[in-house]
């Protein structure tokens, strides 16, 4: 279910989970990793694999509990937070999409990888495997935040927190429209109550037009893929998850259409130089109607 190509779906789930922003942070960090970072991340993992086995028993139990809760979901609040994907899907995306360049017998890339180059899925080096484990533990702790004990969550996240102190801060590559995208994300991350109400109003008004919204999103996503901006597009969607949390947009609003409106606008802006006018306007006009134009 989860992949970089379908990042809007991943973002939709993370935007509605209690630990969604933290999970997005782990994935964003994974997107920015380079070969030179792997040692620092791997060294943060303890050598006691038995301790990790015990922690992952807790993770498995929490994942099963979520599946059971989702299957029996009846209350609206539960439905609003019920993810479309699973922890297994999240970890698969992390290991084989985000960290695809760490697999195979060739040397890992010295700089940030591009989606056009994909190593055969063979095996990772010991260092890459340990680094992947650190990120996987932290991603699981965040994704299952409310279902894990505080102690288990802390122990799963501690190596990642330690690794962060040793890693450089990097600005994410958001493609040719990076300046406009950053401006949009800053705006979404600082919404006033009045702007939230306006955003909801436009969302409600736009809902009858979903029949032409879905094909427009598909066209934009296809353009992201064909242009080689998959990783940039995924980063933008994950940053949108965090922006919504900074503004405190209610989960009910995100589930009720606000995520779709904003995610579609981000996707369209990512490839605005490639989209036809009709598709671009269909996805961007609701955003501009709600929050105004991007400043020059």
- Fraction in beta strands: under 5%
The overall pLDDT average reads 90
Name the helicity range: 55-70%
Looking at the structure, what is the overall shape? Answer: globular
Gap between N and C termini: 38 Å
**Main β-sheet description:** none
Structural class: mainly alpha
What is the count of structural domains? 2
Radius of gyration: 19 Å
Total count of helical runs of at least 4 residues: 14
Plain-language structure description:
- By secondary structure, this protein is an all-alpha fold.
- It has two domains: 7-164, no CATH class; 178-291, no CATH class.
- 67% of the residues lie in helices and 0% in strands.
- The chain has helices spanning 7-16, 20-32, 38-42, 49-71, 76-81, 87-98, 126-143, 150-164, 178-188, 193-206, 210-226, 230-247, 251-270, 277-291.
- α1 packs parallel to α12 (230-247).
- The longest helix has 23 residues, at 49-71.
- The relative contact order is 0.16.
- The model is unreliable at 106-110 (pLDDT under 50).
Give me the secondary-structure topology:
Blueprint: H1 7-16, H2 20-32, H3 38-42, H4 49-71, H5 76-81, H6 87-98, H7 126-143, H8 150-164, H9 178-188, H10 193-206, H11 210-226, H12 230-247, H13 251-270, H14 277-291
Helix pairs in contact: 1-2, 1-12, 1-13, 2-7, 2-12, 6-7, 7-8, 9-12, 10-13, 10-14, 11-13, 11-14, 12-13, 13-14
